[in-house]
């Protein structure tokens, strides 16, 4: 398996699959169309974010979208994982863990002291993140009105 930045056509493929990633990541709570997902992602890319993707013989297995953030209380910069997604046929093979390790290494090399991500409370990926050393930093709560 190779983890690298995707070329332009590979990035277009990832963008076309992003609505599925958002829908699964929010456990069905959000189902953006391709245009909305593309606008959200382009905002991250325009601010210096980038994709890292996993390939096996040029076959896309999964990807991560990473960027930067700044703590609103301390102004301390951090790396941020906006998306981590493995295509259904390739799940359960450790690809998400390898992708996350690779992007964490890249963010560390770029000088970020920490990496953050947000995850829906019902998403099974929480177990992976905890296994990899992520801990709860803030908790966002809601109440239906």
UniProtKB/TrEMBL annotation:
Pfam families per record = Acetyltransf_1 (PF00583)
Report the PROSITE patterns cross-referenced here.
Answer: GNAT
Residue intervals of the N-acetyltransferase domain:
1-145
Origin: domain of life: Bacteria
Fetch the CDD domains from UniProt. NAT_SF (cd04301)
The cross-references to PANTHER family, in alphabetical order and at most eight, read: L-AMINO ACID N-ACETYLTRANSFERASE (PTHR43617), PUTATIVE-RELATED (PTHR43617:SF34)
**Which protein, by its recorded name, is this?**
GNAT family N-acetyltransferase
Question: Origin organism of this chain?
Answer: Sediminibacillus dalangtanensis
Its ancestry begins with:
Bacteria, Bacillati, Bacillota, Bacilli, Bacillales
């Amino acid at each position: 398996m190779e983890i690298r930045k995707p070329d332009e056509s590979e990035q277009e493929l990832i963008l076309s699959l992003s609505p599925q990633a958002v829908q699964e990541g929010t456990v069905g709570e959000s189902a953006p169309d391709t245009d909305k997902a593309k606008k959200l992602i382009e905002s991250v890319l325009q601010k210096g974010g980038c994709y890292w993707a996993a390939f096996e013989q040029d076959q896309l297995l999964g990807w991560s979208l990473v960027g930067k953030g700044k703590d609103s209380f301390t102004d301390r910069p951090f790396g941020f994982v906006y998306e981590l997604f493995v295509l259904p046929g390739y799940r359960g093979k450790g690809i998400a863990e390898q992708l996350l390790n690779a992007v964490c290494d890249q963010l560390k090399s770029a000088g970020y002291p920490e990496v953050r991500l947000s995850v829906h409370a019902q998403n099974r990926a929480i177990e992976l993140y905890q296994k990899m050393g992520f801990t709860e930093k803030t908790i966002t709560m809601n109440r239906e009105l």
